[in-house]
Amino acid sequence: MTDTSTHNQDNLTNISKILWDKVLKPDNSWKDNPKCSEIQQRLSYFNPNHLDTPEHIDKVIKCVIRGVRLTEEAINWYEPSIGGEKLTVYDKLRGVQWRLVIAYIGFEITTKALMNNFGGVLPSNVIIKFIKQSNLPSYNPLIPPNPKKKENLDKWLAKDEDAIAEFLGVISPKDKQLIKHWIVQSNSISSWEEAVQLARFFRNASAHGFLSAKKVQDWELKPGLSILADNLGEIMAAGLKKLI
């Protein structure tokens, strides 16, 4: 991990602790007025339609806590691996994949709760609004992958320009364009919105078995997947600050 990612991990952990100590503590205190109304007023920053009922506030806070814990555990998983006692390089790369999967699940749960959007798939416009409301600093560009063995990627680049995206199960034209931008055209990811879009894509590709550990190795995706997981934690920390 880089120094920046370590800072992000500490940031999410510290901000969530401050939120708990200053606003939410003790456990279940948000079920009583006037604290229930106070928390609703803080949540209204993200969505004025948050209710001030104990049932609604309890649902939101418990989702936020669950989401934050998942992402915290993911980004603090310093040497991720999925495998037996004698770990292979692929076991470690699978760990990197699932670190991102878990981080994104936590991000999605927390964003749904804060934005009061508890439906099925979290819409992209809600994610974009959450990012904007979190008032993040300028995004540090994510450089494209640079495989050491170019032939591992070149044989895919020689095909149709959407070949990589289609191989990885991408359906959305917007996602196809981002994959083309980052992998095929070797352009950096330059915004928080693009970073979350890319994180969601790799989360889906990993969770549904499209992206193998071997492809992560061949295409040199490990650094990018690691940074994207850290980015999710940084966005969440910025969002939580708005409740303090």
Fold blueprint:
Blueprint: H1 3-24, H2 35-43, H3 54-75, H4 89-115, H5 124-133, H6 151-157, H7 163-167, H8 173-184, H9 192-207, H10 213-218, H11 222-241
Give average pLDDT, whole number: 91
Please state the oligomeric state of the protein chains shown: single chain
Helix content: 55-70%
| Shape call | elongated
Task: Count the E strands.
Answer: 0
The major sheet is characterized as: none
Query: Using only CA atoms, what is the Rg?
Result: 19 Å
% residues in beta strands = under 5%
Distance between the termini: 29 Å
* Class from helix and strand fractions: mainly alpha
Task: List unreliable stretches of 5+ residues.
Answer: 1-9
Number of helices: 11
H/E series: HHHHHHHHHHH
Tell me what you see in this structure:
This protein has 244 residues and is an all-alpha fold. Helix content is 64%, strand content 0%. It is built from eleven helices and no strands. Helix 1 (3-24) packs antiparallel against helix 3 (54-75) and helix 3 packs antiparallel against helix 11 (222-241). The longest helix has 27 residues, at 89-115. It is elongated, with a radius of gyration of 19 Å. The model is unreliable at 1-9 (pLDDT under 50).
